[in-house]
Amino acid sequence: MAISRNGCEGCTEITCTSTKDVLSKDLAKTVITAYDRVKARGMSACLFGSTGTCCRNCNMGPCQIIDGVDEMIGICGATADTVAARNFARTIASGSAAHTDHAREMVKGFIETAKGHGPHEIKDENKLMELAEIFGVDTEGKDKNEIALEIGELALADFGKQDDTPVTMLKRAPKKRQELWKRLGVEPRGIDREVVEMMHRTHMGVDQEYHNIMLQGARCALGDGWGSSMLSTDLTDIMFGTPVPRRAIVDLGVLKHDQVNVTVHGHEPLLAEALCLAAQDEEILALAKKVGAKGINLAGVCCTGNEILMRRGIPVAAGFVQQEMALATGAIEAMVVDVQCVMQSVAEVAKSFHTDIITTNYRAKMPDAVHIQFEEETPLESAKEILKKAIANYKKRGDFFIPEETKFDVVVGFSHETINYMLGGRFRGSYRPLNDNIINGRIRGVAAIVGCDNYKMPDNHHEIIARELIKNDVLVLATGCAATGLGRVGLLRPEAVQYAGPGLAEVCETVGMPPVLHCGSCVDNSRLLIAATAMVKEGGLGDDISDLPLAGTAPLWMSEKAVAIGQYFVSSGAYVVFQNLPMTGSKKFSKFMMEEMEDIYGGRWDIEEDPVKLAQKMIAHIDKKRAELGIDKKRERVLFDMEMRRDLGGGGLHDVGCAGPAK
User: Fold this and answer.
1) What SS3 class is residue 154?
2) CA–CA separation, 120 vs 112, rounded Å?
3) Which of 28-37, 149-158, 631-640 has the lowest mean pLDDT?
4) Residue 220 and residue 566: Cα distance in Å, rounded?
5) Distances (CA, A) of 275 to 256, 417, 534, 647
6) What DSSP assignment string belongs to 74-99?
7) 372 and 386 Cβ atoms separated by less than 8 Å
8) On the chain, which terminus has fewer CB atoms closer than 10 Å, C or N?
9) Rounded alpha-carbon distances, angstroms, from residue 211 to 215, 579, 589
């Protein structure tokens, strides 16, 4: 699977041209990367761990469980069903905790901004007012900062609520879905509370019935998706501006030979936004010129990169699996990191070059890195200190290689609001055109490709899945490292419509959008929940998310956050398919997750290793939903005269071409 340290000849697993270019140079041959470590292991993954049946939750084990073998249950008597459910639920809890801790920092930063502290401001007042209505904040006679402060304090209270009322943002879901959650008893209460209860239930000797364990698993995940992640996305939009479509670049080639290259890696936009402001400061620019550089070149890595890409058009140099490759160019003065998805190996790789790894969060330090704490109370000052450290490294730069032939431009910035505006315009913003074109068959359905990339599998699986979907007229929404990976192969630009089926191509060309829409970072999957809810509210496609012709996947998932995301989509009524999941060691539990869960939530999990078959499973689910809605039949194309148009009423026809439904 991995390349050798002597180059990448014969490598079939790495398809990214710029990555192969960097690794083929003498400069990088002494650098040990994750590809080398995978190869050096010389062993496959533990079968018990990868199928979910290794239990380490007490000190009588670890116990390796074999389903159906009496002698191979846990010392405490725990069966494969119980162990697999506990392990899966703990993965949900950990992923939810990561999103929740991230979101809490965003809420605190929002409160500081509302108080007038720091360089940020309330930018999206329309979204502020929408959130005020959701939280029940009276806006009469108040300025935007007063309103924001009240919202921020109520949002912060949602994390630690101790009563049994559901978290505030849950009311944004379709009414039928809210009623289902209430009936099942899975409405998330305090956001933090659900993580704590999940960890308690999966402690030795507590919850030992897999159906019951997964009820709390659903509640914990919903607290993430409809609670913390949704809060983080909305408050970030209000502070820094809701993304709008813009062109940018995604590739290692965005590094500059004559500027101080600083990559921002992690997940917290407060740091990245402060660095963006500091990089334009006259004092910082003067220091850069003093050492011979033309300026500061910021580039993103992982989901922080997606945040500033969406809002500022700042290029993304690398996704998760490329973080070591970016350093191996020898062209980066500093990689600034905060939390989540930062590999400890980056500090070791940096030793071969002049680069500093700068940690900025007290939660996340590593050996051989420089720590400069990012102070939220004085963000600009912290950012300047970080950039000064990077500038000091510029003159130390030795040999370097920046790939220049493979840069792809992308169009990003597709928030829920953007899609609404693009389809309906400023005065008639609406999902009606999307719904109409799904009903008439031009668009077969909607698919989400989200999550990480992963050294275990070839890096072209996202591309294979996306191409299979769009050629079958399925509109793709992408987030996280999956989105930037699709950008590196040219699928995030309008020109990619050439790969789409005729119906999807017609709609995309009319609207002027790509067939694959970049919707943000991994925390921004909550945008997809809101988009799905908007489709339900628009009408014509059922009355719940589970009725919609949509499906989701995180095929190359690496982080526990991806499982939490998958579960909150399943619990919201979606079909979600991954390439592997740690549940197959238990027949009853895996059957429950992949079949019986659909009877409860209208959504379920599925597993498919082959990327083409995975995409085809998504299409089959979309077709199943189309049949259930009765929109799977070809209908005769009817041209409407003026009298027929008047009979349609106020809504009019938003169908492309204003001709009746057909394909």
Assistant:
1) helix
2) 9
3) 631-640
4) 12
5) 17, 26, 35, 56
6) -TT---HHHHHHHHHHHHHHHHHHHH
7) yes
8) N
9) 6, 23, 8
Beta pairing partners, 518: 412, 478
The phi, psi pair for 511, rounded to 5°, reads -85, -30
Domains of the chain: 57-240 (1.20.1270.30), 252-396 (3.40.50.2030), 409-632 (3.40.50.2030)
Report the C-alpha gap between 401 and 226 in whole angstroms: 44
Say which residue the tokens 């996202």 belong to.
Answer: 462
pLDDT digits (tens, 9 = 90+) for 194-247: 999 999 999 999 999 999 999 999 999 999 999 999 999 999 999 999 999 999
Q: Which residues of 192-202 are buried (b: 16+ CB within 10 A; e: fewer)?
A: bbbbebbbebb
- Nearest partner of 187 among 137, 230, 229, 227, judged by Cα: 227
- Which run of H or of E encompasses 211? helix 210-223
Torsion of CA 482, 407, 338, 298, to 10 degrees: -150
Could you tell me the sign of the dihedral formed by the alpha carbons of 557, 559, 564, 568, in that order? negative
Both tokens assigned to 334: 């500093």
Pairing of strands 334-337, 260-265: parallel
Per-residue pLDDT of 156-178, as tens digits, reads 999 999 999 999 999 999 999 99
Please state, in angstroms and rounded to a whole number, the distance separating the CA atoms of residues 541 and 548. 6
Do the bridges between strand 445-449 and strand 550-553 make them parallel or antiparallel, or are there none, so unpaired? Answer: parallel
Rounded CA-CA distance 328/319 in Å is: 14
Among the residues of 500-601, which ranges form H helices?
A: 502-511, 525-538, 560-571, 587-591, 597-601
Tens of pLDDT, residue by residue over 422-433, are 776 565 678 999
Residue type present at position 472: N
Pick the closest to residue 382 from 358, 365, 366 (CA basis).
358
**Directed axis angle between helix 560-571 and helix 525-538, to 10°?**
10
As a whole number of angstroms, the distance between CA 139 and CA 452 comes to: 40
Cβ atoms of 436 and 466 closer than 8 Å? no
